[in-house]
Write a sequence for this structure.
DNA sequence: GCACTATACATGCATGCGCATACAATGCCA
DNA sequence: TGGCATTGTATGCGCATGCATGTATAGTGC
């Protein structure tokens, strides 16, 4: 009785429920097995997909759904763990490239099957 | 190029993007115009829909997507603002009923058009 | 070259969250 | 009835977040 189905409200509730179900499971499993949060995983994946020069933080903000400050600290944490390197940009010295390291690729590769398994299990 | 579309991964990314788009807009507008967070609005709405005896916190946890501790504090904030009353339960004195107040119904009624307008604008 | 504005990232601060735990009330079983 | 696990809620704590702001660099008009 809580899902009207056709109304906007019902659709939004379904989206909320689905998002909560999947992201809670992802958070739990990724944290338990790989010590990664969902946002950390997402950032690593985007970095792995970008070319080898890495990615301007500016650009990552658009991909990962997160404030600029949150992203800055996220990259900081990943850098502290050695999963990412910060490289300052020669052409525009305000800019910072985040580049995934080999260790970062390794951790991402380890975590990806877990991620997929959770999606398989919870998304439908 | 970031949305594969058919894969689980693509579907999950779409869900993330949609959720972020809607909830960021909701958060902003509800906060700006009615000083309510999205979770506060959701809780009020659930309480308004439940019968007049209110709702056990325990039960609300299942409806709102939130930990028990977060809900306890959320109800605390709403109670501080006079939008909700805590009533202890006679049959089981561990239990707490949260009951929406008239003021709570008023605030909810004020905020609902904003909520609907944002859904209309961002959900599709 | 000099002021002024805009952009990119970092950081202080307040807040909400989840986890673990504390506490109170209940149920159960000997 | 007495002990013990269970359930419902509150709270201490650490952490990630967003907002506002700070700092450095870039661009632009004069």
């Amino acid at each position: 009785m809580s899902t009207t189905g056709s109304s906007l409200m019902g659709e939004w509730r379904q989206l909320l429920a689905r998002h909560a179900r999947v992201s809670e499971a992802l958070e739990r499993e990724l944290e338990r097995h790989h010590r990664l949060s969902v946002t950390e995983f997402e950032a690593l994946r985007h970095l792995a997909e970008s070319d080898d020069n890495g990615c301007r933080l500016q650009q990552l903000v658009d991909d990962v759904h997160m404030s600029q400050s949150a992203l800055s600290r996220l990259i900081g944490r990943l850098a502290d763990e050695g999963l990412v390197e910060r490289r300052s940009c020669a052409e525009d010295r305000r800019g910072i490239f985040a580049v995934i390291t080999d260790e970062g690729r390794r951790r991402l590769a380890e975590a990806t099957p877990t991620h997929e398994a959770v999606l398989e299990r919870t998304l439908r």
